[in-house]
Specification:
Two copies of one chain form a homodimer.
Chain A (H helix, E strand, L loop, with lengths): L1 H9 L4 E6 L5 H13 L2 E6 L19 H10 L4 E3 L3 H4 L6 E5 L7 H4 L3 H16 L3 E5 L3 H13 L5 E5 L19 H6 L1 H15 L5 H13 L4 E9 L10 E8 L2 E8 L7
Parallel strand pairs in A: 1-2, 1-5, 2-3, 5-6
Antiparallel strand pairs in A: 7-8, 8-9
Chain lengths: ~270, ~270
């Protein structure tokens, strides 16, 4: 991978990287589209990173279908797919981890200990293997974006982090590779996340600034949804992920499936 | 720095990096010589890295003389000196650390908690800023070499780590920027480190393989030296820094000054 990247660089071609765990949906393809518009070469990675999953999480059952992913990447005009094996990424004896403290600690960091250390480590490795000019991440994983931005600044990785808006289903549900886990009842219930974000954004637009009032709006639909178990619902600063702020973030369980979503309340919620 | 490096790379020129904390001696210049022979462009860094010093260590009094260092680098035909400020390397809010477990834990890792995390973090940053083809480290800091090799493999840093033999005074004392701290009595006593390594190597050459016997030879002179306080004296594996092995490693205090030295017993000790 690095040989190919350095050849492209020698030829003066700019490189955009779209890191994914495969299981592609239209959100990933929107990242590829942004990369295609801004770079000469587009590399997409597909790697289900074991070290960002905790014990009891869904590493084993995470959906994998490289043939389907490769066809979708090809259709989206990706130039190269980086698909390392686990043995290549974490050979026997590998013992290095990249840890971002601060922003990686609250919310997702608390709910998923070790998750962001796994993310920071694999993102560093993807960046050193691909040496991209730009890398594309979805706003859907807002805290991951903040961790990666901090990481890139702190380790001088020289990669421009581009953040692409969340792609949603018609009813508002944010696209996620984990949505396939939902049964029909859970799928119907899951609209409560985006409904809460929409309600909080509407209240903000109408002038509401009280954190508890906004939080109550965020939880309005979720509280009435028997299938939803709210893990957190907060309004935080988008760099530190601590209150106060104007980024509404949600993590909710439906049965065994855990979904997250977020919205910056200073902006109108998309129709 | 990265702009300059990427320009050199576009021109097809290979880049060798010599990371230093300044306070140059002939050991550093030997690294520069090796880099000069093997690369089109030689970059030397001079940065006293605060995060690899523990509380109570010599960060404040570590010798600094950039004018002298710059003159010595120029004389040795270095093309560029990378001399970042602490604020550039660790700006307010920086919170990322690179941690290598395993090899970084025994010996120096135990004696200097956090030291190798500081080393791994700054080396990663130097490599991402310079993007060298090769980087040059002294055998004198043998455990640092093992940590950096592990780091480079684990994070796919794509840098060839070159290890250069220790340069010694005529009486055997390994060159170190910390030797200037020694008073004349301590300087005379400090020869006990290399004398121990020489005695252990002679015993090994004569067929001795018993770890305790070899260790006794290592300590023969040090035990008779009232100014020397031995911190550790072990014979370890050069990749894991755990026994058994054939790399003799020493850490010894003379007053407030802490010196380290090592020798691979399968090789004759230099005259």
């Amino acid at each position: 991978m690095l040989d190919a990247s350095r050849r492209w660089r020698r030829e003066g071609r700019s490189i955009g990287l779209v890191p994914t765990m495969g299981a592609l949906h239209a959100g990933h393809l929107s990242l590829v589209g942004a990369a295609r518009r801004e770079n000469d070469v587009v590399v997409a990675s597909a790697f289900v990173n074991p070290i960002q999953f905790g014990p009891g999480e869904d590493f084993e059952r995470y959906p994998r279908d490289l043939d389907r992913d490769a066809a979708l990447f090809a259709e989206a005009d990706v130039d190269a797919i980086y698909h390392p094996s686990t043995e290549v990424m974490y050979p026997s004896g590998a013992s290095t981890r990249v840890h971002v403290s601060g922003v990686s600690e609250p919310l997702e960091g608390t709910a998923r200990p070790g998750h962001f250390e796994g993310v920071a480590t694999v993102v560093t490795k993807l960046f050193t293997a691909v040496e991209p000019d730009r890398a594309y991440f979805g706003q859907k994983d807002a805290q991951q974006v903040a961790v990666v931005k901090r990481l890139v600044r702190d380790l001088d990785l020289g990669v421009n982090i581009r953040v692409v808006p969340t792609v949603r289903e018609r009813d508002g549900l944010a696209l996620s590779s984990r949505n396939v886990y939902l049964n029909p009842d859970e799928r119907r219930a899951a609209v409560a996340l985006s409904a809460g974000l929409r309600a909080a954004a509407a209240a903000y637009t109408a002038g509401e600034r009280g954190p508890e009032k906004l939080r109550a709006r965020l939880l309005s639909r979720l509280g009435a949804e028997p299938l939803a178990q709210v893990e957190y619902a907060e309004i935080v600063d988008p760099e530190t992920f601590r209150a106060p702020g104007s980024l509404a973030v949600l993590a909710v369980r439906f049965g065994k499936t855990r979904l997250i979503d977020n919205h910056e309340l200073t902006r109108p919620f998309p129709e």
